[in-house]
Amino acid sequence: MLLISLSQHVEVYSDSWKSLWLPLITATLFLTGCCFHDDVMFPDLRKVQKSVLILSEPAGARIEVDDNYVGDTPITITVPAYACNGYFTKHTTITALPIHDGQYVQIKSFSGNDEFSHIGDPVPDRIFFDMRLGRSGPPPTQVDIDVHNW
Prior knowledge:
Structural class: alpha+beta
């Protein structure tokens, strides 16, 4: 009995909802393709240039962005970001190369965001490299290979 009354109830109201299905589906598809930031929706997927200040301790580290030399610290660079959320538009690697003995190469990688997945890293306002930091894991193991016994 409950199923019959429920189906009759749905049939009565189904005609009035038919005209709303297409606009509801269209709005849902449109809204899920927009960028989100702080729970506010912005349908703006333009790419803009965002400034990033890069610092190092000590100053003077050579900076490369995606293997291209851009200058020595302190330096301000610009990277492409989405206007709606400030996320990187593509995978980006920033490398600080040492200029003195006792310093170590430092690498920071950022995931790129695409228009559909909303997965990636926000572009920071500032990046700091401590050139005195060394390897954070165990030292590499030496492996001797005797090619004559293969």
